[in-house]
Write a structure and sequence with these properties.
With about 280 residues, the protein is α/β, with parallel strands linked by helices. The chain folds into 2 domains: about 210 residues, Alpha-Beta Complex (2-enoyl-CoA Hydratase, Chain A, domain 1), CATH 3.90.226; about 50 residues. It is about 40% helix and about 15% strand. The chain contains 10 helices and 10 strands. The strands form 2 sheets. It has a 6-stranded mixed sheet with strand order 1-2-3-5-7-10, with helices on both faces. A hairpin with a 2-residue loop joins strand 1 and strand 2. Helix 4 crosses helix 5 and helix 8 runs antiparallel to helix 9.
């Protein structure tokens, strides 16, 4: 696919997906959706990628759905010709992927690699939704967050009503959704919406440093299994999670990464994990 509305780069085992409509604060379009799904699927499939960073070009992360798209929806004239049909490019989907992670925007938890949102500016509406499906959210100190839906006559879209309370609690989720007020990075951090607030100029380098730590020191196999345990575990009872962990632990004992992890520790050297 030719990328027109995002940049997709790979270096040092890290894929960086940059939403690239800076003059529109990277507002979401059907074309961007197609490119985003394609880039995510490619990064998930590549053996030379072990972590994924998502960020935005210019002053915004993603200001939500492009107003022209909303106007088209309002007028009943929606052109979906650029959309990759759901199911034709399905990042992370395997035979045992839960249906919950096969919806239009809920696929990132099915990707077997850590995804880090480097939120460099406004993350509004659908832009905020995308950050919630990432494993980590790092915010620049000038980032802004808001849901916007109530002020557009809309509702909590794309699973945010399920996911946001699990991240920030019911009352904070209700606050953000009902009022649609805009909060800054510091308040987002106090709520638990983001895990780190980083000086704007250092955001991408700090995010890459964190991703580099993951790709050099952590077993890709371990990350893949633990990500599945965390996200699938949202639907499991404790007993089922304990039983699954016992099975996964026995399989990990037979893995090459387990042997390498022990050997590198005993030999006091950096690990050379293969992901197998």
């Amino acid at each position: 696919m030719t990328y027109e509305q995002l940049q997709y780069d790979i270096s040092d085992a890290i894929a960086t997906i940059t939403l690239n409509r800076p003059d529109k604060l990277n507002a979401w379009t059907f074309r961007m959706e197609a490119e985003y799904r394609h880039a995510m699927a490619d990064a998930d499939a590549r053996e030379d990628v072990r972590a994924i960073i998502v960020t935005g070009a210019g002053r915004g992360f993603c200001a939500g759905a492009d107003m022209s798209l909303l106007t088209s929806v309002m007028g009943g004239d929606v052109d979906t010709s650029d959309v990759v049909a759901e199911g034709s490019v399905s990042p992370g989907r395997t035979a045992d992927t839960p249906e919950d992670f096969t919806k239009q925007y809920s696929f990132p938890p099915a990707i077997g690699k850590p995804i880090i949102a480097a939120i460099n500016g406004h993350a509004m509406g659908l832009g905020l939704v995308h950050t919630l499906y990432c494993d980590f959210r790092f915010a620049g100190d000038k980032a802004k967050f808001g849901t916007a839906f109530a002020q557009r006559g809309l509702i909590a879209e794309y699973g945010i009503a399920w996911l946001l309370p699990r991240i920030v609690g019911i009352e904070n989720a209700a606050d953000l959704l009902y009022t649609a007020r805009i909060i800054d990075a510091a308040e987002a951090h106090r709520m638990g919406l983001v895990s780190r607030v980083i000086p704007q100029d250092d955001l991408l380098s700090a995010t890459r440093a964190f991703a580099t730590q993951l790709v050099t020191l952590s077993s890709p196999r371990s990350l893949r299994v633990m990500k599945r345990q965390i996200w699938h575990g949202l639907f499991n009872r404790l007993g089922a999670s304990v039983d699954l962990a016992a099975d996964e632990m026995m399989e990990s004992f037979a893995s090459e990464d387990f042997r390498e992890g022990v050997s590198s520790f005993l030999e006091k050297r950096p690990p050379q994990f293969t992901g197998s």
